[in-house]
């Protein structure tokens, strides 16, 4: 199979999957951010309640600018919510906030896959910094050495993305359970949370598939 055929077979479909996943999560978030919860609890309050129920009381909750910039920082024990989710009380906002609280609970309970992912962060960051050089050198100048380096870079990225999957899926599972268990949401309101978090999960699957496809593509080129 030629390099062009490999590109069309591996890279193009995964790029389409990535665009589809992004469109799906944006669409789901937009739809369910317009539907308010009956409790009118904000995302910040929901995250605090979920963590408090799990016995996590040493995590700071802050807000940040940007759209869907929500994340949990295990290094500083800080749960960061985008302003729309920090102050919002929509089903989407509560779902995202509870998901990030799920990561804080993972950290507090020593969830093994989160610990593994954290251990991979330094080498993954280093690999990410090398990626532009690999792409420019490997694809545009045909430098075989950089293609081989690209295999190593994408191997690291693929392993990181693979480990990310159970971490994200587990955080969403915890969020869905705790939102009902704490009484923040009723069962019939969970459809909005499920749709939002399931769409977000697809983006992580797409990221893994894309990284794996690039790894296989570069590995095939390095063998020529």
Automatic annotation (TrEMBL):
**Annotated Pfam families:** Zn_peptidase_2
The transmembrane segments are 199-220
**What are the protein's UniProt keywords?**
Membrane, Transmembrane, Transmembrane helix
Q: Which InterPro entries match?
A: Zn_peptidase_2
Listed name of the protein: Zinc metallopeptidase
Q: In which organism is this protein found?
A: Oceanipulchritudo coccoides
* Lineage of the organism: Bacteria, Pseudomonadati, Verrucomicrobiota, Opitutia, Puniceicoccales
